[in-house]
């Protein structure tokens, strides 16, 4: 698999098979991803990987603490504006169309959202930790690391879904993992093998065209 294939085949998988991923494979993925770039080579990231009983413990922790709250670091800015508002809305509608859950069936939509807190059935969960005092640059660099994890995983046939949903239970998770006060969990990531029979995995999200996102000057 080349880089282009990896970028284009990585999608957010939202239904996994229970088949386990050995620790050695998760280690191998992180061993590659750690070569992601970061300003000043700070490498402002830490990962907590959970499987088996540890995975089940965080799933139970989330269930006991939901709905939770996002705290001060909102996942999206308040009153999202265009074109972002429409893009977000479209993703949700496209996803629920695949799941055949109409807008009126709020209960079923919430049930699907709640699956985030079961890693969509994936056998492995990753939590990405950053120091609270880090600036916007380091948050961006953490994102590069996360994409590197996802791309390295897909090269090995392992699918993923990044999950900022876990932000809702940041505080109990931090206590569970005995994080230092200076640290926080930014995001989760489900890792596993896609259940390709599940309609939600047929979703392919839209992207803006190059001319919408780029300007070319001086060519
Ligand atoms: C940092 C980050 C957090 C995300 N959090 C969630 C999440 O909590 N739950 C979810 O279902 N998808 C989540 N996503 C997936 C996005 O919805 C998805 O990346 C986007 O719609 C593009 O689709 P694709 O990943 O299939 O290409 C997240 C993506 C990113 C980059």
TrEMBL record:
Protein's name according to its UniProt entry: NADH dehydrogenase
Top-rank taxon: Bacteria
UniProt key word Ribonucleoprotein: no
Pfam families named in the record: Nitroreductase (PF00881)
Keyword Oxidoreductase: yes
Cofactor: FMN
Recorded family membership: Belongs to the nitroreductase family.
Molecular function terms, GO-annotated: oxidoreductase activity
Nitroreductase domain mapped to chain residues: 7-193
CDD domains listed in its UniProt record: PnbA_NfnB-like
SUPFAM superfamilies: FMN-dependent nitroreductase-like
EC number(s) per entry: 1.6.99.3
Keywords, alphabetical: Flavoprotein, FMN, Oxidoreductase
